[in-house]
């Protein structure tokens, strides 16, 4: 009985508070008045302008919420919100320059403000109506365990609703939760529980970014300059500066700002010319140095790019990054080229000696080329020529097999041996085809002769190439 008498006043207070908090509060009225006043003074309400916060601190105005796309943030930069329609410019900035936490928090604040000014009060009233039914059931029930479960469910619903509705009417929700906590305590005490604990759940809204007023033209142009500085794409920078110049034009009160924008635009144009010349010069020198295998020259070019970039105000980070990546690749090519040249100098003598050893084989194959072409084309030929060619090829095979090739031309030597074997096979099959009057065997001889001629040409071309200093990858590409 004691527990029942103690609980009912608490329920009465909850019901009374529920009726009180369903009426509009002053905060909502103030927000609506402020929004109306701002709309009357400017073409855009503050709630329509999101912000993209740079790590340097500037809050760039965004017409609509920004979008995160990979490692970039894309948004409509507000250049002039006083015009109808507002002047905006689509901008893409690297995430590395953005304070994402503040940008996200500001977007959440705007959503909460919009919710409060539109559906907030209606949703809150619906919540109170729903809770009234729960409270009536809690009061009417004679089952203490059931009432305790209903009270705990009410507490959880209140906390979840506040969290899921941008912490709208958070102070009122907090008061209700405190009263429900007292009821839960009374009910638990009534069941004989001497002590209890409630889950600790944050009842206060997270820190929110204050809603900023729509920037005037002077502030918008100043922020556009900051956006241009943060942009890493030339076209974006030029577009932002052109739009900023157009917004400030014809405004005597913005004369100083106009000069600042003009100086920045001129600096950008000069930077475009300078960096283009730097890129062309560095790439040409790097290609020449790589062909020579001059790694030191490429390292010097890398230092020059960094020094010139500092001199030019570091206005093209993307281009400079690309140049440095290219120089890194060129440096690896130059180091490989230098090593290849030194290796060639080391093995050149053995390569020339090898060429002298296999020269008779190539000469012999040249002399037998007419026979192989006759076999390939299945032309009429004296039988003795075929027999003599087969014997000559057998002797050449023995001579070449006795040669020990340097490692660098081992593949070429294998091709030469294959050419001799295939040529001898072609002559042998032609001879057998004549003896047996076998057309299919003659065709097989033709195929073998064609293959032998191709292998001879390949072995000769590869050997000639091996006897000269290795070509650079650039020279090879040009030749192709």
What report would you give on this structure?
With 480 residues, the chain is mainly alpha-helical. It folds into 3 domains: 1-43 and 103-205, no CATH class; 217-331; 347-479. The protein has 15 helices and 5 strands. The strands form 2 sheets. The chain has a 3-stranded antiparallel beta sheet, covered by helices on one side. Strands 1-2 form a two-stranded antiparallel ribbon. Helix 9 (255-292) packs antiparallel against helix 10 and helix 13 packs antiparallel against helix 14.
Write the layout of secondary structure elements.
Elements: H1 2-21, H2 26-41, E1 49-53, E2 59-63, E3 67-69, E4 72-80, E5 87-94, H3 100-117, H4 120-140, H5 144-164, H6 170-190, H7 217-230, H8 234-248, H9 255-292, H10 295-311, H11 317-377, H12 383-401, H13 410-436, H14 439-466, H15 473-479
Antiparallel strand pairs: 1-2, 3-4, 4-5
Question: What does the average pLDDT come to?
Answer: 84
Secondary-structure content class = mainly alpha
Total domain modules: 3
- Our Rg estimate from Cα atoms comes to 43 Å
General shape? elongated
Counted by DSSP, the helix tally is: 15
Main β-sheet, spatial strand arrangement: 3-4-5
What does the largest sheet look like? Answer: 3 strands, antiparallel
Order of helices and strands: HHEEEEEHHHHHHHHHHHHH
Distance between the ends: 101 Å
Helix content: over 70%
Which segments are poorly predicted (pLDDT under 50) over 5 or more consecutive residues?
A: 1-42
- Approximately what portion of the residues adopt beta-strand conformation? 5-15%
List how many beta strands DSSP finds. 5
């Amino acid at each position: 009985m004691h527990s029942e008498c103690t609980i009912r006043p608490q329920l009465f207070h909850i019901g009374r508070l529920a009726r009180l908090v369903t009426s509009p509060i002053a905060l909502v009225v103030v927000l609506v008045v402020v929004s109306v006043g701002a709309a009357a003074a400017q073409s855009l309400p503050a709630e329509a302008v999101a912000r993209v916060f740079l790590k340097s601190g500037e809050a760039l105005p965004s017409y609509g919420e920004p979008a995160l796309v990979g490692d970039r943030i894309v948004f409509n930069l507000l250049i002039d919100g006083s015009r109808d329609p507002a002047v905006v410019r689509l901008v893409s900035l690297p995430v590395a320059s953005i304070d994402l936490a503040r940008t996200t928090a500001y977007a959440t604040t705007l959503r909460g403000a919009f919710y409060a000014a539109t559906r907030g009060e209606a949703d809150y009233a619906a919540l109170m109506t729903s809770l009234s039914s729960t409270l009536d059931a809690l009061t009417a029930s004679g089952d203490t365990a059931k009432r305790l479960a209903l009270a705990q469910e009410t507490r959880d619903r209140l906390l979840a609703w506040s969290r899921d509705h941008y912490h709208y009417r958070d102070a009122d929700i907090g008061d209700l939760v405190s009263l429900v906590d007292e009821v839960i305590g009374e009910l638990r005490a009534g069941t004989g529980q001497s002590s209890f604990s409630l889950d600790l759940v944050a009842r206060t809204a997270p820190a929110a970014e204050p809603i900023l007023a729509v920037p005037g033209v002077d502030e918008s142009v100043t922020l556009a300059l900051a956006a241009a500085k943060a942009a890493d794409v030339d076209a974006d920078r030029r577009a932002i500066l052109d739009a900023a110049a157009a917004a400030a034009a014809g405004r005597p009160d913005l004369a100083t700002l106009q000069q600042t924008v003009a100086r920045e635009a001129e600096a950008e144009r000069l930077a475009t010319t300078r960096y283009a010349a730097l890129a062309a010069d560095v790439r040409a020198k790097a290609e020449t140095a790589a062909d020579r295998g001059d790694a030191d020259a490429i390292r010097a070019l890398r230092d020059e790019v960094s020094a010139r970039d500092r001199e030019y105000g570091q206005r093209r980070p993307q281009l400079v990054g690309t140049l440095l990546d290219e120089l890194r690749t060129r440096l690896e090519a130059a180091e490989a080229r230098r090593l290849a040249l030194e290796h060639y100098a080391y093995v050149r003598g053995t390569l020339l000696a090898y060429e002298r050893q296999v020269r008779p084989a190539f000469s012999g194959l040249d002399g037998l080329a007419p026979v192989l072409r006759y076999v390939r084309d299945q032309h009429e030929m004296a039988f003795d020529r075929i027999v003599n060619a087969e014997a000559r090829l057998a002797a050449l095979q023995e001579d070449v097999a006795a040669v020990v090739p340097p490692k660098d031309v081992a593949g070429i030597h294998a091709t030469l041996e294959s050419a001799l074997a295939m040529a001898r096979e072609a002559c042998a099959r032609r001879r057998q085809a004549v003896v047996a009057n076998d057309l299919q065997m003659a065709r097989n001889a033709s195929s073998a002769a064609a293959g032998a001629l191709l292998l001879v040409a390949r072995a000769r071309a590869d050997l000639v190439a091996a006897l000269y200093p290795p070509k650079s990858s650039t020279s090879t590409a040009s030749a192709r």
